[in-house]
Specification:
The chain is mainly beta. It is 11% helix and 42% strand. It is flat. 35% of the residues are buried.
Length: 1277
């Protein structure tokens, strides 16, 4: 507070008091100062708070200082107004004391080692401060005023932590789980809090807030544990805050325990602790000794179970006073009953006599457990435990037979069936053993016997298969029953049932015999229904069901005990049912569905009703006549190998009599399309299991169906299969290795017939291989052959489209020569047989289904199987194919390829090509190069039917050179001649008297065209008839380059209509008829029909005379004809020859593009020509003619061309009058050696007229005249 007088000692303070003396303490001047002497002054200090202050004294103008000369009293603390505060801090508190200064100084404070948040000077004896956060207790408080501190120890404390909860409060014994401890006063920062759980420290802790800390709980086994937490120097505690899970058993490998001895078991449990905690256990209330409960781990315990009885024993496990229970964990063995003595209990006066019964067995316990015994349905009156293997009891009343004994010991039950019996009832006699067939209320029967016991046992009785309508107990030895209705027959047995005991008397009862008196028509409108009358027909239980001979009731119904209505079999009348026949009918029990009648015999038995019985898995009940007379039989489901894949069935259960077989799964779909096959086949009891087909790295997978995974083959152009199947030859064939099997092929000889059919819509397509066939498999074959339906390859589609286009072009040109044929139509899928190159000897059959509806609509057409030749890109008809049934065709073949069925239209049949054939010669040749082959055996390719003589013969050792590599097939086909070939044949002939067509047969195409042979081979052709006198037949080859027929020298006619010649190459050949060559009178040869020649020198004189006379006549006639032609030629055409030729050439050029038109059959029998063709051919100048020579007058050509080109003009308007041509005329063709110009003009006009007559509908008689060659008007030929 200052105002204290301070005496300052020093020197040189002045010698006189008159000096002005002043002093300063620190930074504050003394309130007053006074000089005392030269060595002392005094001053009154101002208030202050610092220490070790400097003192400054000024005397006059000079000053002197002294360091650390003066200090103020240090602050001191006497009291803290709030000595305790929360750990969060921020609480204002007042510190009382002294020396805090008289004014506001920079006062600071600390609690413990932490500065307070703020201080406020209040007075020299009080300071207000705001405490900081903390967690400790008994802290020192320090206050600094200026630079002088003041302290007081143990003046302040923070509130101790308070704990509220720990969560979760329960954990497994293995623990090491993180839990959250909640409370207050845990601090506002991490103060390295620690804690304990029932004496065990938490494994770790993490501060989260003033109210929460996370701790990791250690392993343990107790419950209701206290947990404590220390933050700073303060601790907080909560009791009963945490528990570990109780131990409990979960399972035991063996839960059934022996009853008679200790039994060691291992128990699986939970929460047994992570170390040995001296476990104890009890089973069913019986403790397991501590020494016999062994801790194994937190999850297992070994214990020795004591002997005992009962079931569903609970187990209690106690670990460190923590107990857990598992209900119904163990059961002791059930008592074992082996036998009893005695085993038959005697009945007397309706009740069994009480008997002591000893039950022998085992596992009945080691002490008396109050056993109870039941004999049959009646409990023993008393029972006593004798040993672990014997219990005795006293039996009660009973009435059963072959009854079971049951013993119960502490809820464990043991039993033995058929352990003992009671005396059974018996039947001795039956009163009224023969009774009417109708059961009346008064029709009672008394049954006498023994051991019927008491009325309370509700006795019952049956007569045969029918129950007595009611049964009444009379006494221990008799009962009374009301008889059922029935039918006479074999005496029935009587069965009495008393308390499940049966008494039987065989042949004890029968009904009055029924009798049939006769029959009469029941309905005048229906003569098929009769009434049969008689006696003892029963009461609704029976009716007429049997026939005599062919007479019987289709259905009958009971009317009364004396009549039955009978509907006779169809076609019978009441007149057929004579009295004799009706009396032979049997009365049979009526059976209603699902029962059938069995064993009905007249006068013996009315039969019995029995249900149709179910058949075992794999078979079904058939012919079970429900309500009829037959139980039928069992028939196996359709299965392999008798049934196709898509027809097979299975039945995996017994089911009922109506349970049917189920259709097997068809792998790959109904058509077996090659996507799946059977991993396991369908049997009569199991369905098929499908496996996806594999993939081919190259080629196409074929035969993947049924149980076969298929094989990969390279098949050119084939991209997709619609259905496929594979046949393994190995199982029914013998492998052949002899000389017949060549070129490293695999060969088989079939031992029995085999067939492979496709499925679904292709099920009629099949391979049929007979017995004793030698099979040589093609490339890639091992032991299987495949048959598949394929999508149309591009090569086949292109070839068929080209054929259709050619046919359309011919139709457009209106060509009706023999070259024209309507295209054949494919009416079946494409069938591919593999491996390619496979051969058969003798041939096998290929069956192919086709569209029968299309064939039926094509009246007059036929179907045939064709084989595809990929090297030639043609379809070739396979000989002798036939229809085996509508929609299915069959053909024999000795090799594999692609097959299909074609519809051949009627017009094509009329202008038949004549047939075709092809032969793969790969097995008959040796390859020298890709195109060169040499024959190793004679090879013959020939046609069949009407062209059976057409063939090619190749001897052994012939070098065959094909035009392209890879070809191994030869073909022969009869084709119609084209118009170019017909015209070429005519142009090759000089003008002469022979006016018949030159081609005497259709064209035969030997292929592949361009194939060369060395040496030559023989070809044989057929032709029509015998050449006329002066003509001969020769084989000619078609020269495509020159469009001419080149005669092959050396033709031999080996028989009528058959000629042969040698050739070195394949092309198109035909037989042409030519005039005999001109003879010079010296030497000539004439071909004969037998191929021989006649030497002409034998008649030299005769020949010379004939030749000379002929030359004279020809020269004379020629001169006369020329003069007449020139004289008759009109003036307008007598122009220079050059102009005539130019006009002719211009008109010929104008006609170049005209299509050929049909004309009269006047040039038959060999071909058809047009007027234009004829004029052009006749107008063509010979090669050796001079330029000035006119062949035919231009006016004649012009007239013929005008006539041919005319569409509407009448013929008589076009022809000059001198021709004498009218539309009604008949025009013939002269057969002379030559024609005049008029005659030639008439000929040409006749051709044109014949053409127009055909088109304009002239009467047939006129046309017939043309064809017959009648004479023309005015003497014109």
């Amino acid at each position: 507070t200052g105002r204290a007088v301070v005496s300052v000692s020093g020197a040189n303070l002045g010698a006189l008091a008159s000096y002005s003396v002043s002093a300063r303490v620190g930074g504050s001047a003394c309130e007053a100062s006074a000089w005392v002497s030269a060595s002392a002054i005094s001053c009154r200090a101002a208030a202050g708070v610092s220490a070790s202050l400097r003192l400054l004294v000024t005397t006059g103008a000079r000053a002197g200082t002294a360091s650390d000369a003066l200090s103020y009293d240090a602050p001191f603390l006497t009291r803290l107004a709030l000595p305790n505060a929360p750990s969060t801090g921020g609480t204002s508190m007042t510190l009382s004391g002294g020396n805090f200064g008289t004014v506001q100084y920079s006062v600071t404070g600390k609690i413990g080692s932490t500065a307070v948040q703020a201080t406020q000077w209040s007075s020299s004896s009080a300071v207000v401060c705001k405490g900081g956060a903390g967690v400790e207790g008994s802290l020192r408080v320090a206050v600094t005023a200026g630079s002088t501190p003041g302290t007081a120890t143990q003046m302040f404390s923070y509130s101790i932590p308070t704990l509220s909860s720990i969560g979760p409060a329960n954990k497994a014994t293995t623990a090491r789980a993180v839990v959250s401890v909640s409370g207050a006063g845990l601090g506002t920062a991490d103060y390295s809090a620690s804690g304990m759980l029932a004496g065990s420290a938490f494994e770790s802790s993490v501060w989260r807030s003033d109210t929460s800390i996370l701790v990791k709980v250690p392993a343990g086994v107790r419950t209701s544990l206290r947990h404590a937490l220390t933050a700073g120097e303060h601790s907080g505690t909560v009791t009963d805050s945490f528990s570990y899970d109780r131990p409990h058993a979960t399972a035991a490998p063996r839960t059934n325990i022996l009853t008679s001895q200790f039994f060691g078991v291992r128990v699986f449990a939970k929460n047994l602790g992570t170390s040995v905690y001296s476990p104890s256990s009890s089973i069913g209330g019986t403790a397991v000794r501590t020494s016999l409960s062994l801790w194994g781990s937190d999850t297992s315990l070994w214990c020795l179970v004591p002997a005992g009885v009962s079931i569903d024993k609970s187990m209690v496990i106690t670990i460190a006073q923590n107990a857990g229970t598992r209900e119904k964990l163990f059961s002791y063995d059930h008592p074992l009953l082996l036998t009893a003595s005695p085993r038959n209990l005697v009945a007397a006066r309706g009740r069994a006599i009480a008997t002591v019964v000893s039950l022998f067995g085992g596992k009945m316990g080691t002490a008396g457990y109050s056993p109870s015994v039941r004999l049959g349905n009646t409990g023993a009156t008393s029972s006593v435990w004798m040993s672990s293997s014997n219990v005795q009891c006293r039996s009660g009343a009973g009435w059963t037979t072959a009854s079971a004994g049951v013993i119960t010991i502490a809820r464990t039950i043991g039993s033995l069936t058929n352990m003992f019996t009671y005396d059974a009832p018996s039947v001795s006699t039956i009163k009224y053993a023969c009774a009417p067939t109708v059961g009346l209320p008064t029709s009672s029967v008394t049954i006498a016997g023994a051991n019927f016991f008491t009325a309370s046992l509700s006795p019952a009785a049956r007569l045969g298969g029918s129950a007595f309508r009611a049964t009444f107990w009379i006494s221990e030895t008799s009962i009374s029953s009301l008889q059922p209705s029935g039918v006479a027959g074999t005496p029935e047995q009587v069965v009495v049932t008393v308390a499940q005991l049966l008494a039987t008397r065989t042949e004890a009862f029968t009904y009055d015999q029924y009798s049939v008196s006769g029959a009469f028509a029941a309905d005048p409108a229906d003569d098929n229904v009769i009434f049969v009358y008689g006696n003892n027909f029963g009461n609704y239980d029976a009716t007429l069901r049997r026939k005599v001979g062919d007479i019987g009731c289709e259905a009958s119904s009971w009317v009364s005990t004396t009549s039955t209505r009978c509907k006779l079999f169809a076609g019978l009348t009441s007149a057929d049912a004579t009295t004799t026949i009706v009396k032979g009918m049997a009365m049979c029990v009526i059976c209603n569905p699902p029962q059938v009648l069995d064993g009905c015999i007249q006068g013996v038995s009315p039969g019995n009703c029995a249900e149709c019985q179910a058949c075992p898995a794999g078979s079904v009940r058939i012919n079970c006549g429900v309500g009829g007379f037959s139980r039928g039989g069992c028939e196996e489901c359709k299965s392999a190998p008798l049934w196709p894949i898509d027809d097979r069935q299975f039945k995996s259960i017994t089911g009922t009599a109506t349970t049917q077989c189920t259709k097997c799964t068809t792998c790959g779909g109904v058509n077996s399309d090659g996507t799946e096959y059977e991993a396991s086949p369908c049997t009569t009891t199991t369905d098929a299991s499908c496996q996806p087909c594999g993939n081919c790295t190259t080629g196409l997978l074929l035969g993947c169906s049924g149980t076969s995974p298929g094989k990969c083959f390279e098949v050119a152009g084939v991209e997709k299969i619609m259905s496929t199947g594979q046949l393994d030859l190995k199982g029914k064939s013998t492998v052949e290795t002899g000389t017949r099997c060549v070129n490293d092929r695999i060969c088989f000889s079939t031992n029995e017939p085999m067939e492979q059919a496709l499925t679904g819509e292709y099920r009629d397509i099949a391979l049929d291989i007979p017995q004793n066939v030698f099979v040589t498999l093609g490339a890639g074959g091992e032991s299987e052959v495949q048959i598949s339906v394929i999508a149309t390859p591009l090569s086949i589609a292109g070839a068929e489209k080209a054929a259709e286009k050619a046919a359309a072009e011919e139709a457009k040109l209106n060509v009706t020569t023999s070259a024209t044929a309507k295209p054949k139509t494919r009416v079946s899928p494409l069938v591919l047989c593999t491996p390619e190159g496979t051969t058969f000897a003798p041939p096998i059959k290929v069956k192919i289904s086709y569209d029968e509806s299309t064939v039926r609509r094509a009246v007059g057409s036929r179907v045939a199987v064709f084989k595809w030749y990929p090297q030639l890109l043609i379809w070739v008809e396979v000989p002798n194919s036939k229809v085996i049934r509508p929609g299915v065709a069959s053909v024999e073949t000795n090799s594999f390829s692609i097959y299909s069925v074609f519809l051949i239209p009627a017009s094509t049949v009329a202008a038949t090509v004549g047939g075709s054939a092809a032969l793969d010669i790969s097995d008959s040749v040796t390859a020298l190069s890709p195109t060169e082959l040499i024959s190793t055996v004679p090879i013959t390719v020939k046609l069949a039917g009407a062209y059976a003589k057409v063939s090619v013969a190749i001897p052994t050792g012939t070098l065959i050179t094909f035009p392209n590599p890879g070809i191994t097939s030869l073909s022969v086909a009869v084709l119609p001649a084209s118009s170019d070939q017909l015209a070429a044949a005519r142009r090759n002939l000089p003008l002469s008297g022979m006016r018949r067509a030159m081609l005497s047969t259709d064209v035969v195409d030997f292929g592949p065209s361009g194939t060369v042979f060395n040496p030559n081979v023989n070809i044989t052709l057929q032709f029509s008839g015998t050449p006329p006198a002066g003509q001969y037949a020769a084989i000619a080859v078609w020269n495509e380059a020159t469009s001419k027929w080149d005669e092959k020298p050396g033709t031999h006619v080996i028989e009528a209509g058959v000629a042969t010649v040698e050739t070195g190459s394949f092309s198109q050949y035909a037989v042409i008829t030519r005039p005999m060559p001109d003879s010079d009178g010296i030497l000539g040869t004439t071909p004969l029909s037998d191929g021989g020649d006649v030497d002409a020198l034998s008649l030299p004189v005769l020949i010379a005379m004939a030749v000379g006379a002929t030359l004279v006549v020809i020269v004379g006639v020629g001169v006369v004809c020329y003069m007449r032609r020139r004289a008759a030629m009109p003036k307008k055409v007598q122009e220079p020859v050059g102009l005539q030729r130019q006009e002719k050439k211009d008109k010929k050029k104008k006609k170049k593009d005209r299509p050929a038109e049909p004309v009269s059959d006047a040039f038959q029998p060999y071909d058809r020509v047009s007027a234009v063709e004829t004029t052009e051919a006749l107008g063509e100048k010979p090669d050796d003619a001079d330029d000035d020579d006119a062949v035919i007058d231009a006016s004649v050509l012009a007239l013929a061309q005008q006539l041919a080109a005319s569409e509407t003009a009448a013929i008589e308007d076009l022809a000059p009058p001198e021709f004498g041509v009218t539309s009604a005329s008949t025009i013939g063709i002269a057969a002379g050696a030559g024609l005049s110009s008029d005659e030639m003009a008439s000929l040409l006009a006749g051709l044109a007229a014949a053409e127009k007559i055909q088109e304009s509908g002239v009467p047939e008689s006129a046309v017939a005249g043309l064809q017959a060659g009648g004479g023309g008007p005015a003497g014109k030929p």
